[in-house]
Amino acid sequence: MALDCLTKAVVEVAGRECKFSTVRKRDCFYCRHFLGTNLSSIILDGPQFCAAVFFLAGYFGMMIGMNFSKIAGTVSRNWLTFAFIGGFITDLLLLNRIDDIVDNLILLTYVVLATVSLLVFYAGVAERFPYRVSRVVQKYAPIVLQYSFGGLLSGMLIFYGRSGDWLVSAPFFILILVVIIGNELLEKRSDRLLYYIALYFIGIFSYVVLVLPVLLGRMGDGIFILSGLLALLFVSGVIRMLYSIVPNFMQSNTRRVILMLSTLYISLTALYFFNLIPPIPLSLTELDIVQSVVRDSNGDYRIVDEEQPWYRQIPLVRNELHPTGSSIACFTRVYAPTRLETRIYHRWEFKDAAGDWQEAFRFGYPITGENRGGYRGFTRLESFRDGIWRCGVENERGQVLGRTTVRINTTDPARAMVTRIE
Question: What pTM does this model have?
Answer without folding.
Answer: 0.72
